[in-house]
Amino acid sequence: MVRRLANFVNDKYPKITSLLDLKKERTSLQWINYLNNSGIRTRRIITQKDTGMTYEQNTPIANFFSMMYEDLLRYSDMREEWEKDKWDIRNLKTKYGLLYNESKANYYLDFSVIKNVTIRNAFKEYCKLRLLSRNNFTVSTALDYLRYIRRFANFINMIEPEWDDFKHLKRKHIIKYLEFMNDYATSVVNQSRKAYQTSC
Q1: Which of 2, 62, 67, 164 is the most buried (most CB within 10 A)?
Q2: Is the pTM of this model over 0.90?
Q3: Residue at a domain's end among 18, 42, 76
Q4: Would you say 53 and 47 are in contact if contact means Cβ atoms under 8 Å apart?
Q5: Is residue 99 part of a domain?
Q6: Domain residues for 1?
Q7: Contact predicate 130/137, CB 8 Å
Q8: Using an 8 Å Cβ cutoff, are 32 and 42 in contact?
Q9: How far is 163 from 157, CA to CA, in rounded Å?
Q10: DSSP secondary structure letter of residue 102
Q11: Which has more confidence, 160 or 101?
């Protein structure tokens, strides 16, 4: 994989000095096109044993550029972990003794999913203080909070793009959000049913 990636970079970007000089999303698509043109499979069908549902995902080689890019970015970013938008929980464990479930493959708290930068930074500060206080707030709790806060914050950002806080939040915003989540849940259920029926 490394040799193939090196050939791709040398062919497409012979003058760069680091993978980090490239735009990740754009280059990742070019990498996948390069693999497809070379006759290498970039998608595979996965079937869940318990439900029998099938879904499609990238093959490991298709994800290889993104993985290498992320690793390089992580090792070259010398900022304090709290300053980053994506916290490596392993680094927080080493420096601050924070515990997390090591059997899980996800080692990150990725705050970049919150689109509004001011709200993102406020939530990062909240998580930092709660994690350091160790008062019934674990990394797993932070991951759960992030999952729900992201949806809410991004929805409010979509309907009130000028807001940098929730001080003017009204009942009508909550009702709109509940309607949005109801529509979202219904569409997920319908997609799951279609996928299940297709796999039967």
Answers
A1: 62
A2: no
A3: 76
A4: yes
A5: yes
A6: 1-76
A7: yes
A8: yes
A9: 7
A10: T
A11: 160
